[in-house]
Amino acid sequence: MPARPAISAKPISARDGDILILVGTNKGAFLLRSDRSRRKWDVGGPHFAGRSVYAMAYDGREGRHRIWAAPKSLHWGAELCASDDFGRRWSRPEVPRISFPEASGASLANVWQIEPGLDDEPDRLFCGVEPSALFESRDGGESWSLNEGLWNHPHRPRWMPGGGGLCLHTILTDPARRDRLTIATSTGGVYRTDDGGKTWQARNRGIQAYFLKEKDPEFGQCVHKVVRHPSKPDRLFLQHHFGLYRSDDAGDTWREAAGGVPSDFGFAMAIHPRNTETVYIVPLQSDEFRCPPEGKLRVYRTRDGARSWKPLARGLPQEDCYDTVLRDALTVDREDPVGVYFGTRDGRLYGSRDEGESWSQLAENLPAITCVRAVTVRGRAKARARVPAARPRAGERRRRKKAA
Amino acid sequence: MPVHFFVPGPLRDFAEGRSRVDLESSPRTLAEALDALGAKYPGIARRVLDERGEVRPHVNLFVGADCVRFGDGLATPIPEDCEIAILPAVSGG
Global pTM? Predict the structure, then answer.
């Protein structure tokens, strides 16, 4: 019989001050670790080999070192897993943590976003899923409930799936108003609640949608990503399916902000952790091609709140590059100078240690990259008592049973 | 011999490592058999069926040699002594 080797994930370990990059791909998750120099990276993985991972998050609140990942098996469905030891063990509950209630008539297709809540609510988390819906946990991720206000919104039946599916991919909390939450869905657009999720209003005024007949549609926009800085939560930046926008009133109105980019189409967007006017994007050529304009892979950065954009290309391929960067595959760390990272559908991970001025390839030949997150590990890494219990492997369980 | 399930490798973590799970009851239909399996090992049933109780599109269930997708689905009658096989469909990329 031919050999069928088992797939085991290469482990990494991380210490206080290390930088960690979480990389989701269409065939598993990878963890990269470096010390603060960010010059040499250890690559760990693949975790969840063969399953796609569209969402990952790091929860460092209350001394945690918890990595969340949402592997999706084509066969067995999507679920939410957590690790408190940098991927050596992943908790995998018998019944998946996120399920649509029976009355909804829906079933979970994928998890597109995992977002820890505010710092002073350390047990609160949010997930954006497909079909477009928002789930919330108030007990550190043990249990989750569907936000009924958004699910029952009269617009929802008229939201349409984009190329990736009908997904809720952006969740923005507001440190200044804790009952406010802003989400974005493709296609549907931006919605905001100001009463803790009971009611939601479309916030798309000014966002043009060439694919709709209506000139100023209330909803139906294909928003790809929205970012905001926590210290200035009313200023939002938005990458649309054609169109870059800025809002200074928490999404009540939007105005175009695409001066100086070679294409206003793109997916990914990230904001600087300290400078509220600095945003990064990766423009792509048209919605038919979705590759870098002129075959040149360039990140664009604004430092003046999207009034102007500057290309950042040093170290990136500038000839015959037809790679693509997806909506959650661009991120920043919190170091000084800031590290910027992005992954491509061709499995290349690029990083910059100088706020985007120059780039190097951190990994290549990975599966298609779907999401990238970067964090600095703080404090001594040890498991907390309240971790959602990891399920021992079957062999271990048999040994324990026998011993008992 | 009792009605039993064949459990594929990726789901054996949810059945204490077993490839075969015997049912103590005598289910009349596949739906009843999956209910009984779910009572014993919810982690398996919940991955074979979605939260609406529908068989996931890339999972094939065989009662004996017959794929139920082309028969009566979850209403498929379960004869005595039969094996119900849970098999991942050939799909991926």
Answer: 0.94
**Which residues of chain B have a CB within 8 Å of the CB of A96?**
46
> Which of B7, B12, B13 would best serve as a mutation to test chain A binding (most A beta carbons within 10 A)?
B13
Question: What pLDDT was estimated at residue A389?
Answer: 45
> Which chain B residues touch A398 with a CB distance below 8 Å?
16-17
Q: What percentage of chain A exceeds 90 in pLDDT? A: 87
* Run of H or E including A176: none
CA angle, residues A119, A125, A127, in degrees to nearest 5: 140
Q: What is the pLDDT of residues B30-79, one digit of tens each?
A: 999 999 999 999 999 999 999 999 999 999 999 999 999 999 999 999 99
d(CA B70, CA B76): 10
Chain B residue with minimum CA distance to A50 = B92
CA distance A354 to chain B (A): 37
Average pLDDT over all residues of chain A: 93
Give A104-118 pLDDT, tens digit per residue: 999 999 999 999 999
d(CA A76, CA A90): 17
Interchain CB contact of A275 with B (< 8 Å): no
Residue A404 touches chain B, beta carbons under 8 Å: no
Compare all CA atoms of chain B with the CA of A98 and give the residue at the minimum distance. B51
CA distance readout (Å), A352 to A109, A120, A140: 34, 31, 33
Smallest Cα distance from B10 to chain A, Å: 9
d(CA A318, CA A22): 26
pLDDT of residue A387: 43
pLDDT at A383: 42
The domains of chain A are located at 25-403
- Residue A41 near residue A74, CB atoms below 8 Å: no
Chain A residues with beta carbon closer than 8 angstroms to that of B56: 75-77
Nearest chain B residue (CA) to A398: B16
Q: Which domains does chain B have, with CATH numbers?
A: 4-88 (3.10.20.30)
Residue A50: pLDDT band with limits 50, 70, 90: very high
A74–B52: do the CB atoms touch at under 8 Å? Answer: no
Is the pLDDT at A358 greater than 60? The verdict is: yes
A182 Cβ neighbours under 8 A, 6+ residues apart: A170, A171, A172, A174, A190, A191, A192, A203, A226, A228, A236, A250, A251
CATH architecture, domain defined by A25-403: 7 Propeller (2.130)
